[in-house]
Amino acid sequence: MRIKFLGGAGEVGRLAVFIKTAANGVLLDYGVSFDAEDKPVFPLHVRPKDLTATFLSHAHLDHSGGLPSLYVSTRTPLYSTPLTMELSDLMYTDAIKLSGYYLPYTQEEVRETMASAVPLTYGEPVEIGRDAVLTAYNAGHIPGSAIGVLEIEGRVVVFTGDFNTVDTNLLRGADLYNLPKAPDVVIMEATYASADHPPREKLEKEFVQAVKEVLDQGGTVLIPSFALGRAQEIMLTLVKHGVNAPIYIDGLARQINQIVGRYPYLLRDPTLYRKALEAAIEVPNTYVRKGAIEEASVIITPAGMLKGGAALYYFKRLAQNRKNGIFLPSFQAPNTPGFEILSKGHAVVDGTLVKVEARLEWFDFSAHAGRREIVHFIKRFSADTRIILVHTEPKAAAPLVRRLAGEGFDNIYVPTEPGEEAVLQ
After folding, report:
1. What is the DSSP secondary-structure string of 105-132?
2. Same domain as 8, residue 74
3. I need a labelling partner for 152 at 20 to 30 A (CA). Which of 65, 184, 273, 349 fits?
4. Is the pLDDT score of 47 beyond 90?
5. Which residues, 6+ apart, have CB-to-CB distance to 403 below 8 Å?
6. Given a cut of 90, is residue 57 above it in pLDDT?
7. Segments in 184-302 forming alpha helices (H)
8. Domain interval for residue 355
């Protein structure tokens, strides 16, 4: 068995792993990153004719965004949960609208991708090739996300995609108990190999308290959020804790809210989700957008790093008033306006320098396993299991790997650049 890391090696993003055996070629995710100029950066190429099956862990573009480029002339079976495919369809359409000039696919390839989908149900094994069986389990990351267990020609591979073992308001933590204890290989994300997340209850309490303080002084709270996953979690947190103010939902998050609502059995608390949808006010146009900023309200809108979308409209109008609040609940990548305002207190938006006078806060609502959970996850497996850390920066992962090696776990490998291979004899 040869495992080739096409992307996500030595980096966070554009994850893609190719597994080649005697009779099968299985692709695990095929994501895309975006450079400083917002141009897409794809994983290394894999020939579609070499693939017998593809597994997509979830719909975030850094795991899914390159897939349609592989469906130009072939229809490799694409295994994923129905919710992931429905969300991916929406995400591809949005990506084409925003970056279509730079993408090597169009809506036609997206249709081919969707037509190739084979639905997975958590816990139900599916044959995906010659002597190859795939079983998906809840990954706890975003709705529909899945950990894949691949039994292939006498080997067992666990692929996490992105995962989270901690319960959130949106989802139950990853289903770890059904995973094999002694697989041959675990290919796992380690985005937060160097950082722990705060206790969830403490985080929610501090976040809701900050929101209420801004509202009580008549201010508006802008919460730029990732449209898929984070926006829904923030919405649920506000409703759960009884925030008594209009909650506006703008941008792509509106459509995602409705799609996720059609899969209540995947949610931790379907009743709370339904209550949140009823409370939320959708923003369909500029008229409602203007009204939202003229009252004490909460506005949840993409983009999570203030790189574009409706968030910029609100930011320019709210940032310079001290009674307002700008609360960032998502990771902020360097060279983004979100990172700029956190580090400098100002950002250049549409060519204009905007100084932030509003209350500025960052809250760690991550949907990834933190360092503590990563360690516990690794220690679940046999000492003979080979652990491969992807979707992480080597400098971030190195201290964790050294620490575990000191405890006797010398079975961990961190590929550092796309193109590297691991071979199982």
Report:
1. --HHHHHHHHHTEEE--TT--EEEETTE
2. yes
3. 65
4. yes
5. none
6. yes
7. 200-216, 230-240, 253-261, 270-279, 286-292
8. 200-362
